[in-house]
Design a protein that fits this description.
This protein is of the alpha+beta class and 292 residues long. Helices cover 26% and strands 26% of the residues. The chain is built from 7 helices and 16 strands. Strands 7, 8, 9, 12 and 13 form a 5-stranded antiparallel beta sheet that branches. Strands 10, 11, 14, 15 and 16 form a 5-stranded antiparallel beta sheet that branches. Strands 3-4-5-6 form a 4-stranded parallel beta sheet, sandwiched between helices.
Length: 292
């Protein structure tokens, strides 16, 4: 989908031109500054979500589309949009937001935009357009995917977004220093496996799940479920530092026995950690990230 009011030119599909009445462009002014007025027709987040829902309705109108097997995914701002679309359009059967999340006013690369808006307009924007205001009512099974050091959507805001979902099945995949981009964002096989799992397609083998890590007696444990043998497991922790998304991370092997994954406690001073579990398909999931 083109959510910036553009379309390819017939003579050169690599060139794009504005569509008359195509809605707002997706620059920062249309994403944030338009909240200063009561006119919502120029607010990019409104158009992005509305267009996602309208596109879904269009697809569902086609006789060749299985109306019980549609899913939604998006990358970066598309992941942000996916969070909201999946929360307001319950006709989807699966969702995968990549990178994008909510709680952007608390920590993200757009803190400067919220500083310029000030507290009152920031509150207004969050209530209307931040995924944190919508994810609590999400009933579409949702799979969150991000990296430890994402420059735009840091782990603290990401985990708050994950935690906000309580009415449906959810899973998560956190990758050490996952790059931010379209190619690397749609590459993980787990996206398709999650969608197939929720739509009753593929081999029927569900992705593993891993509960939040528990620290006790000098070791960290979590419970896992898996439909395929576990190939490997690792315990990942951030070394002490400042910004959440600028830390160095260490990974050490973890053991799996009786559906419990175990590893020694993180080094002193570490304040973020999580497990990763990989099955024989090389499909990886993670536990939620724990914060000290």
């Amino acid at each position: 989908m083109d959510l910036s009011g553009m379309r390819p030119e017939e003579a050169d599909p690599n060139k794009r031109t504005r569509i008359p009445d195509g809605g707002p462009d997706q620059g920062h002014p249309a994403k944030f500054d338009t909240i200063r007025t009561e006119d919502i027709t120029d607010d990019w987040p409104l158009h992005a979500v509305a267009n996602g829902i309208l596109a879904h309705s269009l697809l569902l109108s086609f006789p060749e589309v299985d109306k019980d097997r549609t899913a939604v995914t998006g990358i970066s701002w598309g992941g942000y949009t996916t969070c909201i679309v999946a929360s307001v359009d319950s006709r989807f059967k699966a969702a995968v937001p990549v990178y994008g999340c909510g709680f952007l006013e608390q920590n993200s690369c757009w803190l400067g935009e919220f500083t310029k808006l000030g507290p009152d307009l920031t509150k207004k924007w969050v209530e209307r357009y931040d995924p944190s205001s919508h994810l609590p009512r999400c009933t579409v099974p949702i799979f969150f995917m991000n990296g430890t050091n994402d420059f735009a959507y840091p782990l603290d805001s990401y985990m708050k977004s994950y935690d906000a979902v309580s009415k449906t099945a959810k899973n998560i995949r956190i990758q050490i220093k996952m790059p931010h981009g379209h190619g690397v964002g749609w590459e993980p096989k787990e996206i398709g496996l999650w969608v197939d799992q929720q739509l009753g397609l593929g081999d029927g083998k569900a992705l593993a799940t891993c509960t939040a890590p528990v620290l006790a007696d000098g070791k960290v444990t979590a419970k896992i479920t898996h439909s395929l043998p576990v190939k490997s497991a690792a315990f990942n922790y951030a070394l002490p530092g400042e910004a959440v998304n600028k830390r160095e991370w260490k990974s050490i092997p973890a053991t799996v026995e009786n559906n419990v994954v175990t590893a020694p406690a993180a080094e002193p001073g570490s304040d973020m950690w999580f497990f990763t579990v990989t099955d024989e398909r090389d499909a990886m999931v993670s536990s939620p990230v724990a914060f000290k």
